[in-house]
Write a structure and sequence with these properties.
The complex is a heterodimer of chains A (about 110) and B (about 120).
Chain A (H helix, E strand, L loop, with lengths): L3 E2 L4 E5 L4 E7 L6 E7 L5 E8 L4 E4 L2 E6 L4 E6 L8 E8 L3 E3 L3 E6 L1
Parallel strand pairs in A: 2-11
Antiparallel strand pairs in A: 1-3, 3-8, 4-5, 4-9, 6-7, 7-8, 9-10, 9-11
Chain B lengths: L3 E3 L3 E4 L5 E7 L5 E8 L3 E8 L6 E2 L6 E7 L2 E6 L8 E8 L10 E3 L3 E5 L1
Parallel strand pairs in B: 2-11
Antiparallel strand pairs in B: 1-3, 3-8, 4-5, 4-9, 5-6, 7-8, 9-10, 9-11
The chains are: A mainly beta (about 110), B mainly beta (about 120).
Chain lengths: ~110, ~120
């Protein structure tokens, strides 16, 4: 069974820093990988989808990369802002979707 | 934009009650999913459906059932609620045929269920 890990579980950075969130998975036979944002008590908002044939996707200050062979994805956030504070989850798509437990990000003004 | 609507944000029920959680999507998606989310355990798949009147068990179906009478609506039923079913319940739909590279999940805002 696919296992998805996100480390660290929590991260605090000062406003303006660039940061990287990590996602690793055990089975490289995936269709895609999706990054989500979740605010407290809310549902998940899709940020980026990387298909298995792609290496990266970008949206504004966000850049996600995928290395299937090593079982890793990273989400890069440039020039972080307090509004970026949330939990970030990755989900790996195969015969079903498998989720990590997320990284809780706090951006300190 | 895709909209996935869950009928309740918060619910409080008593043990033994039958509970219905409703989910509606407006983008004609074929695939719909129910997850529960618990601290430290992440999202776990309860049931999913790829078509009307079709359902498949996920990883934790015990104590739950589902209904999909119309394409846009997927209901989760707790036959006899128990305290260990206190959780955040998330409904999702996806945009493509299951298992394709561009299959993208869209989530509702969640229902926080408390069973007393």
């Amino acid at each position: 069974k696919q296992e998805v890990t996100q480390i660290p579980a929590a991260l605090s950075v000062p406003e303006g820093e660039n940061l990287v969130l990590n996602c690793s998975f055990t089975d490289s036979a995936i269709y895609n990988l999706q990054w989500f944002r979740q605010d407290p008590g809310k549902g998940l908002t899709s940020l980026l989808l990387i298909q298995s044939s792609q290496r990266e996707q970008t949206s504004g200050r966000l850049n996600a990369s995928l290395d299937k062979s090593s079982g890793r994805s990273t989400l890069y956030i440039a020039a972080s802002q307090p509004g970026d504070s949330a939990t970030y989850l990755c989900a790996v798509g195969g015969n079903q979707f498998y989720f990590g437990t997320g990284t809780s990000l706090t951006v300190i003004p | 934009d895709v909209k996935v609507t869950q009928s309740s944000r918060y619910l409080v029920k008593r043990t033994g009650e039958k509970v219905f959680l409703e989910c509606v999507q407006d983008m004609d998606h074929e695939n719909m999913f129910w997850y529960r989310q618990d601290p430290g355990l992440g999202l776990r798949l309860i049931y999913f459906s790829y078509d009307v009147k079709m359902k498949e068990k996920g990883d934790i179906p015990e104590g739950y059932s589902v209904s999909r009478e119309k394409k846009e609506r997927f209901s989760l039923i707790l036959e006899s609620a128990s305290t260990n079913q206190t959780s955040m319940y998330l409904c999702a739909s996806s945009s493509s045929r299951q298992g394709t590279t561009n299959e993208k999940l869209f989530f509702g805002s969640g229902t926080q269920l408390s069973v007393l």
